[in-house]
Automatic annotation (TrEMBL):
<keyword id="KW-0479">Metal-binding</keyword>
<dbReference type="GO" id="GO:0051539">
    <property type="term" value="F:4 iron, 4 sulfur cluster binding"/>
</dbReference>
<protein>
    <recommendedName>
        <fullName>Epoxyqueuosine reductase</fullName>
        <ecNumber>1.17.99.6</ecNumber>
    </recommendedName>
</protein>
<dbReference type="GO" id="GO:0005737">
    <property type="term" value="C:cytoplasm"/>
</dbReference>
<dbReference type="InterPro" id="IPR004453">
    <property type="entry name" value="QueG"/>
</dbReference>
<feature type="active site" description="Proton donor">
    <location>
        <position position="131"/>
    </location>
</feature>
<feature type="binding site">
    <location>
        <position position="155"/>
    </location>
    <ligand>
        <name>cob(II)alamin</name>
    </ligand>
</feature>
<feature type="binding site">
    <location>
        <position position="213"/>
    </location>
    <ligand>
        <name>cob(II)alamin</name>
    </ligand>
</feature>
<feature type="binding site">
    <location>
        <position position="188"/>
    </location>
    <ligand>
        <name>[4Fe-4S] cluster 1</name>
    </ligand>
</feature>
<dbReference type="GO" id="GO:0008616">
    <property type="term" value="P:tRNA queuosine(34) biosynthetic process"/>
</dbReference>
<feature type="binding site">
    <location>
        <position position="185"/>
    </location>
    <ligand>
        <name>[4Fe-4S] cluster 1</name>
    </ligand>
</feature>
<dbReference type="GO" id="GO:0052693">
    <property type="term" value="F:epoxyqueuosine reductase activity"/>
</dbReference>
<feature type="binding site">
    <location>
        <position position="245"/>
    </location>
    <ligand>
        <name>[4Fe-4S] cluster 1</name>
    </ligand>
</feature>
<keyword id="KW-0170">Cobalt</keyword>
<feature type="binding site">
    <location>
        <begin position="238"/>
        <end position="239"/>
    </location>
    <ligand>
        <name>cob(II)alamin</name>
    </ligand>
</feature>
<feature type="binding site">
    <location>
        <position position="211"/>
    </location>
    <ligand>
        <name>[4Fe-4S] cluster 2</name>
    </ligand>
</feature>
<feature type="binding site">
    <location>
        <position position="220"/>
    </location>
    <ligand>
        <name>tRNA</name>
    </ligand>
</feature>
């Protein structure tokens, strides 16, 4: 076994020990296939008011411009599928936001993995990324064989579906590289047919500016009235395209205690949400990703749903 192979096996074993679902490795290089796709998407204004998507175009496509001397992109998946769900008569919250903000949870695991690499292999430099920098997470995960990009533009894996977070370590160490897997969407159009706002404009292309997640999290202005009655009770994020995907029947509950929800969250009814106070918001979402939309943002979303 050569050194690159040995180091790759070592990293994958440690990733598993840290609780990651899987780990795949790609060569850090320019993403040629993604470049025209991203350019088209931006030109059609499918990012809406997410202007940050226009920044760092070159860095988004080339990790060597993001991390000096980088040789490898280590992609990791972390399961967040919950054991228990919200009650039926409730305004809905995307499952990824049930527990502690994933940025904190994953960053800690990535730091541990990087320290392990440095302790075991020697002087290795790199950076950890959890969807807060210009890195095309899904493209890298697909390139390293962790899944394929589905028609809803999320990463899909045969054994586990798509309810997981994607993160990366970009490091200056040459490793053994994995290859991509094949697409298993076939003729299925479940996600396209089920999208309440018809945001999946064609297979594999999502108009972000029509997505419920965009309206309830990213959009700071009022939600356009033309979408009234089309939100299917989602007040933060949306899981419809994942919920209807046949591959997600294989989803198993995560084992990360930090992703467990505040006990009150699962039992709150529509009436409870309509009457939520800032104090309850702070208590239930103390360390949650929902804080991003703030109390005022969540309130706006609930009022929008109430008036439909």
């Amino acid at each position: 076994m050569n050194a690159r192979n040995k180091y790759s096996q070592l990293i994958k074993a440690e990733a598993k020990r840290l609780g990651f679902l899987s780990c795949g490795i790609s060569k850090a290089e320019f993403l040629e296939e993604e470049a025209p796709r991203l350019e088209r998407w931006l030109n059609k204004n499918m990012h809406g008011e997410m202007r940050y998507m226009e920044n760092h175009f070159d860095k988004r496509l080339d990790p060597t411009q993001l991390v000096e001397g980088s040789k490898s992109v280590v992609s990791l998946l972390l399961n967040y599928y919950p054991e228990k769900h919200q009650i039926e008569d409730s305004f809905k919250l995307s499952k990824y936001a049930y527990g502690t903000d994933y940025h904190f949870v994953i960053k800690d695991k990535l730091k541990s993995l990087l320290h392990f690499i440095q302790d075991e292999i020697g002087e290795v430099n790199g950076r950890a990324f959890v969807d807060s920098a210009p890195v095309l997470d899904k493209a890298w995960a697909a390139k390293s064989g962790l899944g394929w990009i589905g028609k809803h533009s999320n990463l899909l894996t045969q054994q586990v579906g798509s309810f997981y977070f994607i993160a990366e370590l970009i490091i200056d160490l040459e490793l053994e590289y994995d290859g991509p897997t094949t697409d298993h969407c076939g003729t299925c159009t479940a996600c396209i047919d089920a999208c309440p706002t018809q945001a999946i404009v064609e297979p594999y292309v999502v108009d972000g500016s029509k997505c419920i997640s965009y309206f309830t999290i990213e959009l700071k202005d009022n939600i356009p009235t033309e979408f009234q009655g089309k939100f299917d009770d989602w007040m933060f994020g949306c899981d419809v395209c994942q919920d209807v995907c046949p591959w997600n029947r294989f989803s198993k509950a995560h084992k990360e205690p930090l992703f467990n929800p505040h006990p009150e969250l699962l039992t709150m009814s529509k009436k409870d949400w309509e009457e939520i106070t800032e104090e309850t918001f702070r208590k239930v979402f103390k360390k949650s990703a929902v804080k991003r939309t703030k109390f005022s943002g969540l309130n706006r979303n609930i009022k929008f749903l109430k008036n439909t």
